[in-house]
Amino acid sequence: MFINGVPSGRVTSSAFSPTLQMGIAIVQLADADLGPGTQVEVLCADGKMHKGQVSELPLIDRGGDIPRGRDPQQPIEDPSV
Q1: 1: how many CB neighbours lie within 10 A of its CB?
Q2: Which of 8, 34, 43, 53 could be bridged to 3 by S-S, CB 3.0 to 4.6 A?
Q3: Are 50 and 58 in contact, with CB atoms under 8 Å apart?
């Protein structure tokens, strides 16, 4: 993980989020002052640098909007199908 080309941490775990439709990761930051909103670049398994952003933990739907169908970005499944 890099910030402005300078190594700034490392990815310890990663996965694809079907909800967000993008990769997410847990990282070990080199500086405790690097917090949510920090823009980073990550060298991924495909050999390319990808842009990322530090988010606060936990990565959850705090309001429970997804299962209640209140998130307009999420498809609503029809239980009768």
Answers
A1: 20
A2: 8
A3: no
